[in-house]
Amino acid sequence: MAYARAMMSVAEQDALAAIGEKDRADLLRAWCAINSGSRHGAGLLRMAAALEAAFAGLPARAERVELAPEQIVARDGMVREEPLGPALRFVVRPDAPLQAAFTGHYDTVYGADHAFQGVRVIDADHWNAPGGADMKGGLLVLLTALEAVERSPFAAQLGYQILLSPDEEIGSPGSGPLLAELGARADFALTYEPAQSDGALIDLRKGSGNFALRIEGRAAHAGRNPEEGRNAIAAAAALALALEALNGAAPGLSVNVAAIDGGGPLNVVPEMAVLRFNARAAQDADFARLEAELALAIATIERAREVKISRFGGVTRPAKPATPGLRAMAAAVAGVAAELGAPVDFRASGGVCEGNNLAAAGCPVIDTMGVVGGAIHSPEEWVRLSSLAERARLSALFLMRAAQGAIDCREWRSRPKAHAPC
Prior knowledge:
Layout (H helix, E strand, L loop, with lengths): L9 H8 L4 H11 L8 H14 L6 E5 L4 E4 L5 E4 L4 E6 L5 E8 L14 E4 L2 E3 L3 H20 L6 E8 L10 H10 L2 E4 L9 E5 L1 E10 L15 H13 L9 E9 L9 E10 L2 H22 L2 E10 L6 H16 L6 E4 L4 H7 L4 E2 L6 E2 L7 E3 L1 H19 L18
Parallel strand pairs: 5-8, 5-9, 9-16, 10-15
Antiparallel strand pairs: 1-4, 2-3, 4-8, 6-7, 7-18, 11-13, 11-14, 12-13, 17-18
Helix pairs in contact: 2-4, 4-10, 5-9, 6-7, 8-10
């Protein structure tokens, strides 16, 4: 169903009229002052409490969902479990005829000891702020849009579930199953990652996986009896070269060997090493090829070097390719944006987010519905304040049109919905 441009009704105009900027900016400043790095447990709990208070005005059933700990391979090869913060879930009208999913994350890449801890005003419309764009600003866009929808006469037709996660920046190791479940049940989804610095949105995304390979060799004296040792660092180097050779083996497949940990005194043959790498692919079939090549390399090097290699991790973000539903949803969002006088373009990205997981469950999703910002994951991260209201209006009008049936979201899924309600 193509998007048909329409004049905004009085009810739609009234719902959007109350969306402002100043009160949102004040709240954004308060949120950015809370350090919620992915590994900062106390900060994540403070941020979770702040979000629960802010979202309390929605007619939602709210709950904290405790996540399973993440399995970590330490630099010395030991495997330990790292606790994760709680996910926040808000459920509104689970029996409504149309069901949406909204996701976002409240963790940032800035740890408790990072120097980037507060807001710096750049000019009247721009702040330099940790998480201001990625994605505390996006969470404010979501909240503001839903408040507008709830003011409208169309809210009763729209049910939704909001999932706010504490672990997106580390690959959603705990919230991944919740995202898959959510994507299986919703008619469509919106995720509130920041738009591009020029305001463009993302449609297609590569997939991504993070891997750790633990290599166990045998220690020996480097001078007296090196032949009795089995050099784990050398085996890791051989693995690194095998992985490096996979770059470009398929269009869009890339492998980044990021770190090799291990070793010690120069007169000891190292008995332990850990190799870490990231892989990205435009098609999930290319991940299957990666898995086959990785298994072959591990078996070959284990046999040739008489070491033991254990693998950890894997693909946590499936690829998000073009589908008819995604194309139709992007056209609908672009149509609403044009109607509001703030047109948007779409482009592909090698970056990944929760939208990958939702799409993998068959759910059509636009995952850059947040603020306009840039320089994310750096101390120069910035957010355009006027985009808080601009993008909230975009989401709100899109959702009101969906609730009225003017945009038929239910024809977009790439597979049937799960039967269980949100």
